[in-house]
Specification:
The complex is a heterodimer of chains A (about 160) and B (about 350). Helix content of chain A is about 30%, strand content about 30%. Chain A is of the alpha+beta class and about 160 residues long. Chain A is elongated and about 75 Å long. The mean pLDDT of chain A is about 95. Chain B has a four-stranded mixed β-sheet with strand order 2-1-3-4, covered by helices on one side. In chain B, β1, α12 and β2 form a beta-alpha-beta unit. Classes of the chains: A alpha+beta (about 160), B mainly alpha (about 350).
Chain lengths: ~160, ~350
């Protein structure tokens, strides 16, 4: 009889099945707890929306102030005092959080997108070393959870 | 039976990896921008390695489609897919995860005994498919359990709030596209009562699938409900390959038999030749032996030896041929109504 190396013997099958079921249960449990429900098989879990408005916190002689980021682009001076252009989408290219200033569907739910947004802000802060002026990135997020009354929250990431 | 599943999953794996390669070509490598690995960053592949892995996954999918080394192809493509999901959770989608898991499990089932587009299947009897097929069944049921319980425990889902927004958005989208519906349809579709009923129906459907697929007595009905459920999802939402993955995974619930049913046709008539040709083309799960029958009669002998002709034969054919399966329940119900008009 033809045997493939992938035809497991009885003992290997038992071990394989036990391992697979354990990993599957662990993955699904992780998915229930993770903010983005990764591995959790949570289909169509919300009909929520969010709108991200991005600001830069800069120092001025009169103190710190928020400067709006228009069209996801800002200009700031670097160490050599040269003006450089930075773009949100140079780093954030996928998912709803790549879009600023308009309501978008929060796929996988609001928690998923807020989790990703916070990480994205950290990523952008880390990957714009040439920006000498911006002290922090601030996202003001308007949320509509399953059509309920809007709420606003703010995520601030210091550079 | 499993050979058809191998070919189908191979096609989906090729499509999936080709799409990821197209994304690299269009938008660049994910590692050069914001990404979120579950693995340590050091284990995230470089751009060149990523492209190489996706090319290997395409090759694995092609091997699964062609036949020779198809199981190894499934294993390679699905393992690469799972690894790359761990390398960037932003790439995670339920349908991709389900595809990789089902393909991974099928690699350990004897799916290399039929449907070879190149070469011939290896000789000899196949080992029992139950081990890996049982795990695929469990995997499918786990998806429905997880999805339905998540919805059931969420008051917004249970109460219809989530569905109401979805319906309203769907209605607005149709209006924006110039599709005019009568105002009363709009009021009905967006009413809280309808959304609440639809939510409960969706949760109950998934719960029924989670249980019904495992119970032999309800399995055929659960498969039927599942097929309609996924056709509905496919038509109303963008779910990438999910409907196709689940449709192929349903093959694991089919009784593992080959050509134990007989279709008898009269090939001297054009109708007989049409039925024989249709069955030969659509019998992807190799259910039927086609034999010469009595003059002008189409007759089907089922696995248990029960013979049926006329409308009953078509009911049996529709139940066993995947593409005609959606017609099975209405045909069976229509036949029963016509036979017992008072019932």
């Amino acid at each position: 009889m033809h045997r493939s190396s992938l035809d497991l013997g009885p003992r290997a099958r038992a071990v394989f099945a036990a391992l697979y079921i354990a990993l599957l249960v662990a993955a699904i449990a992780y998915g229930q707890l993770a903010p983005d429900h990764v591995f959790g098989f949570q289909m169509f879990n919300e009909s929520s929306k969010l709108r991200i408005t991005l600001f830069r916190e800069v120092s001025t002689p009169s103190g710190r102030r928020l400067v709006p980021v228009v069209d996801g682009t800002w200009r700031a001076r670097d160490e050599a005092n040269e003006v450089r252009t930075f773009r949100w989408n140079d780093r954030v290219r996928s998912g709803p959080i790549r879009r600023l200033d308009r309501f978008v569907h929060a796929s996988y739910g609001l928690d998923a997108q807020l989790f990703r947004l916070e990480r994205a802000l950290l990523d952008v802060a880390r990957h714009t070393p040439g920006d000498r002026e911006t002290r922090a990135l601030v996202a003001v997020v308007d949320t509509l959870k399953n059509g309920r009354d809007p709420q606003t929250l703010r995520i601030r990431v210091v550079r | 039976m499993l050979g058809a599943m191998r070919v189908g999953l191979g096609v989906l794996l090729v499509i999936q990896s080709a799409e990821r390669l197209w994304e690299v070509y269009r938008g660049g490598y994910f590692g050069d921008a914001f990404h979120l690995p579950i693995l340590p960053e050091a284990l995230v592949p470089s751009a060149a390695t990523y492209v190489l892995l996706q090319v290997l996954a395409v090759a694995g999918g092609i091997a699964a489609v062609l036949g020779p080394r198809g199981r190894e192809g499934l294993l390679v493509a699905s393992s690469i897919g799972l690894y790359l999901l761990l390398a960037n959770r932003l790439e995670y989608h339920n349908n991709r995860f389900a595809l990789f898991l089902v393909a991974f499990l099928l690699a350990f089932a004897p799916s290399d005994r039929s449907f070879f587009l190149l070469g011939r299947p290896p000789p000899g009897a196949a080992p029992s498919p139950f081990f890996a097929v049982g795990l695929i069944r469990l995997q499918v049921v786990a998806i429905y359990w997880s999805s339905s319980l998540g919805k059931l425990l969420d008051p917004d889902w249970r109460g219809g709030q989530t569905m109401a927004i979805r319906f309203a958005e769907g209605f607005d989208m149709m209006t924006a596209r110039g599709i005019e519906l009568a105002p009363w349809i709009g009021r009905l579709v967006t009413s809280p009562a309808v959304a609440s009923a639809a939510s409960k129906a969706a949760i109950l459907t998934e719960l029924f699938l989670a249980v019904g697929l495992l119970v032999p007595r309800t399995r055929a009905a659960a498969l039927y409900v599942g097929v309609l459920f996924h056709i509905g999802i496919e038509l109303s939402a963008r779910v990438e390959l999910f409907s196709y993955v689940m449709g192929l995974a349903y093959v694991a619930f089919v009784v593992p038999e080959t050509r134990q049913r007989v279709l008898e046709v009269d090939r001297s008539t054009s109708f007989g030749r049409f039925v024989a040709g249709l069955t030969r083309r659509l019998d992807w799960l190799c259910r039927f032996r086609i034999e010469e029958g009595s003059k002008g009669v189409v007759r089907v002998v089922d696995r248990g030896g029960e013979a049926a002709s006329g409308a009953a034969a078509w009911v049996t054919l529709c139940r066993a041929l995947p593409l005609l399966f959606p017609l099975w329940a209405p045909l069976a119900a229509g036949r029963r109504l016509l036979r017992n008009p008072r019932s």
